TrEMBL record, chains A, B, C, D:
The 3-hydroxyisobutyrate dehydrogenase-like NAD-binding domain, residue ranges: 167-287
Top-tier EC class: oxidoreductase
The protein's name: 3-sulfolactaldehyde reductase
PANTHER family, A to Z: 3-HYDROXYISOBUTYRATE DEHYDROGENASE, MITOCHONDRIAL, 3-HYDROXYISOBUTYRATE DEHYDROGENASE-RELATED
Organism for this UniProt entry: Paraburkholderia humisilvae
Gene: yihU
Length: 306, 306, 306, 306
């Protein structure tokens, strides 16, 4: 039985499910939300209600926030009536909202001044996963704090990644969601082109799902190539650039706007301008890092995706 | 035993491996290339050499071309000394080069005038796959022609997709390579951002490979959502747009140029301008089609990825 | 002689010059800044110093803010110690910082609650123009407020545009700076292409300055064409699209990345997808508005640029 | 009186006007076009008709081509029946079409083999200017050839720029049209933003025409700053980047897609990643050249725009 008192602020679509799972699994929960219905529902499940952040802060040793933006998180964390000013030393604020990483950094600085600490643990997957306690969490926390919050995360989700120190949870989520949203756009542009070409959709999907166009790149190609420091060519940047020229020429002839294809084309053009045309196309990762003076990405030797 | 005489023009890095596999598996092959070494090597394996397109055309009923660009393909297919002018009626030209689909269309028109036909069968995967007869082919052909070339494709590769009529092979390859090259850029931008954020690479990869950011979208999410005509929200376009705002704000603060992220952000902005902010983010596929007056993509009912 | 007491908060590189010009021209000024040197310099010129926003607010009827971001502006305007809580009814806050228009809107709502009002008057041109009282101001204000602040603006600059109600000054500045910064990028891409082409720079400049590529478009072409509702073609969107295809093909062959050219190309592709290829290329303005459900821009009949 | 026989191939919307002006001003003209009406009209004005490129080539010492694409130009210039195979040594082919510069380079190589030469002189301005002999020509030619064709150009237009050797005319036109088409898009995005902001159009135009947003940059700012090697800041890249952040944040809030603004923002981000944030914003020209390994653009000392 966990002996900590848990505060939970923010019982929206996701937060309510997450809080419910905590109560159902035996955690002592004090909840707060502007919406009295959501509070009542949680009270029925066994939580206590609080109408006052300061009171909740005094009563709890772990406070979870699940709020829309950094404005709301800062308004409950900071100030004379806020969590940091009223909780006891050692309290952990676990913010599970998706907010700007710099806001998380500011919270952590303020927490340290009060002898407390912050954990950032934004949520992956959809609301229906939260209902079933199948969420994914990307967690930035010290090892000690991670150990304290881990039982709560296990109660709310099925996959927990400890990404590193405070701030890495939110940053990892941004990298992840950049990829997720962009793939959505890429798929959409590909399907638009396919439709305009008059291709059979089922056939196109079969091909896209059967080749490395499917993001096996990150699992298979990148780790063996650029991330291992090997850019000897399987498929060169020059050939990738040539294929994108054919794609865009065909798209322009067919009147299919493909802004992402065009942006990619220019990036490969920049690589060619920097004399990298003959390396493997995964090497674009090195080129992009070099052009922005970022350290190249390398996996440790022996790394495997599984 | 296949009774057709096969011509093979273009013994480059890929073509030579493909032709070799045909000879080794018992096909009667006549080959041609500007490079005498490659021709000699094939002759040693059992092929006959030809120095003359017209002669090769007269002698073969299926002629394969594997050449750098449409210029070379047209120069061997067209004209008084070309394939169409010299082959017997019923001959099939199977072009396996990656060329502009409009060039394939022009070849097919010319073939029809001579009582012949064209198959476009560009090659997926890498040169090393061609060595091992493990290439993937995307084939545009009539059903009858597909049946004729299928044994050859099976001898040269391990995966053969019949995409539809002539011209669909090359178009499918363009759609596929758009996705493949763009994913490469997306991964590279994501890794650059992750590096600048100071994230641990192994942790980042674990997350990216463990969530739907990995292109499970096209296998799982799209078919059940937008491609089935269902855009009730799991994760809305508005939320995707908000996350991209956070991504770009963090990238700008960290001085990481992300041109593809920026292009995606504007596309989602266009969707919001068209009152589509509250639909599922897979619905961007419909929005893109609508804004370009393209028919929306829909899988037939009962479609499954496997 | 102006009888109002003027407060001036923010004596940075621009603000100090502006405040100095006010004092020199006889306005009664109370100044405030974190930097004591800047305050001392103004006091020497005849201003009074204030160390306290509340005191300054009680003493002045027009308060000017010239601060880095909306955070600083809001911190002096709002709260118990801020301008609105301490100034007398009828006081005008003239914010000359460049901040987000929504922040200006929030300030105005708060001002109204206190019987006060806001003027947004961001500054155009460079610091050296501010030194010489040659700045340009884009002003959002009620007519009455504009009349009150006009003498101050005339003392600090040489060009004053009354753009409309509160909030229009900052919005106009954003539109203007979008154009200014983007033209800078466009010129830079053009010069990079010209250099890679090996063209003589003086010759290229002569041509660029001698044709409508020079932004005579907005003075001459747009008002007579799209802004007058006339999109009969002088130079069609199709031809503009074709020329951009040639530009990008040449740039790609020469390894010159041109991300802006690529984005423009896709926008013209979207216009063609919407059956607008045969209208005048200025008509892209209508297409962009239509695709984003924005009212088309039209000048009143009889409008002239001078 | 000019003693050369002039051939003119291509009597389309522009070509017919240009040819007419030559005949009216006393040049001996032989014309050719697929459209018999256009030929008849020119014959009425005093030209002779030719139905045969070879005959025209034998009869003329300067042959002008004004055709849709490089395909048509090459088909009349090259081959056994073409201009080069049939004209006398010393003949000049003046191509006034807008074609890919590499096609011009190929023509010139072929011309040299026949003891002839090429002039590329694409046309600026609109069809109505061609009617009134007010076209602008960007000419790539040797000095001797330029002297020969100059009288013809003066008869067809009012502004003639000798840009350099063969190939520079077309390349200059591409640079110029990149700027012209892109400014059109930039103006359109600016007007869309202004409309969505609810700004008064006449006021916005007044501001845009009154500040350096109007392309005085290339006439005034660039020559004194980056093109003179001076990037001490008037307005820094960091400030330009910050303003673009405000522009895009406001545009996103207002649901105005601005793909060009987004591309520009990323370019300034790349400059900041390369430690160039504190230089003058015109310095983006140097940054772009450096990142693509292009020689920086510099005007000769003493250069002036007039």
């Amino acid at each position: 039985m966990n002996t900590e008192n848990i505060g939970f602020i923010g019982l929206g679509r996701m937060g309510k499910s997450m809080a419910s799972n905590l109560v159902k699994k035996g955690f002592r929960l004090m909840v707060m939300d502007l919406n009295p219905r959501a509070v009542t529902d949680l009270v029925r499940l066994g939580a206590r209600a609080s109408g006052d952040v300061a009171q909740l802060a005094r009563d709890c040793t772990i406070v979870i926030t699940m709020l829309p933006t950094s404005v709301e998180v800062e308004s409950v964390a900071l100030g004379a009536d806020g969590i940091f000013a009223n909780a006891i030393a050692g309290t952990v604020l676990m913010d599970m909202s998706t907010i700007a990483p710099v806001a998380t950094d500011r919270l952590q600085q303020e927490a340290i001044r009060h002898g407390m600490s912050v954990v950032d643990a934004p949520v992956g997957r959809l609301a229906e996963h939260a209902d079933r306690a199948e969420s994914l969490f990307m967690v930035g926390a010290s090892d000690a704090d991670f150990a304290r919050v881990k039982p709560l995360l296990d109660a709310m989700g099925s996959t927990v990644y400890h990404c590193g120190a405070v701030g890495t949870g939110g940053r990892t989520k941004l990298v992840n969601n950049y990829v997720a949203v962009t793939l959505c756009q890429v798929n959409a542009e590909a399907l638009a082109l396919s439709q305009r070409f008059g291709l059979d959709l089922a056939s196109t999907l079969k091909v896209l799902l059967g080749t490395s166009a499917n993001n096996g790149q990150l699992r298979l190609n990148f780790p063996n190539k650029v991330l291992a420091g090997d850019t000897t060519p399987g498929f060169t940047i020059d050939l990738a650039h040539k294929d994108m020229s054919l794609v865009l020429a065909a798209a322009h002839a067919a009147k299919v706007p493909m802004p992402v294809a065009a942006a990619v084309h220019e990036s490969f053009s920049a690589a060619r301008a920097n004399a990298c045309g003959s390396i493997d196309f995964s090497g674009i990762a090195d080129v992009i890092c070099d052009l922005a003076r970022i350290e190249r990405a390398r996996t440790p030797s022996g790394w495997s995706p599984d």
